[in-house]
Design brief:
The chain is mostly beta strands. 9% of the residues lie in helices and 57% in strands. The structure holds zinc ion.
Length: 105
């Protein structure tokens, strides 16, 4: 599965205030899958919505990650509304085994 390993850095389009967005500030991923020639393609969509604390401007970030074939990173796409990106987020493939290990220890 895919996770956001590093959140984006943005600034408000209206007042230029800067924000460091933490990966946990995003909603849980929406995951959809499509069957293709090498198996399933998984699409993850994370959304972040907030209002600028200074000018109340609406800030929206949509992060999309594609895993295809399963376990391999394919590509990513970022959409920014009401804000300007300073640094894109980073996505990472996490293998399920690592999660199971984390649960034991
Ligand atoms: Zn603002």
């Amino acid at each position: 599965m895919m996770i956001i390993s590093k959140g984006p850095k943005i600034k408000c389009k209206r007042c230029q205030k800067q924000y460091d967005i933490d990966p946990v500030d995003f909603d849980d991923a929406d995951i959809s899958s499509d069957e293709r020639s090498m198996g399933y393609e998984l699409q993850y969509t994370w959304q972040y919505m907030s209002n600028c604390v200074r000018c109340k401007n609406e800030l929206t970030i949509i992060v999309e990650g594609y895993e295809y074939p399963v376990g391999a990173f394919n590509y990513e796409e970022f959409t920014y509304e009401g804000c300007i990106v300073i640094e894109n987020p980073e996505l990472e493939i996490k293998h399920i085994e690592e999660y199971e290990d984390d649960d034991i220890y």
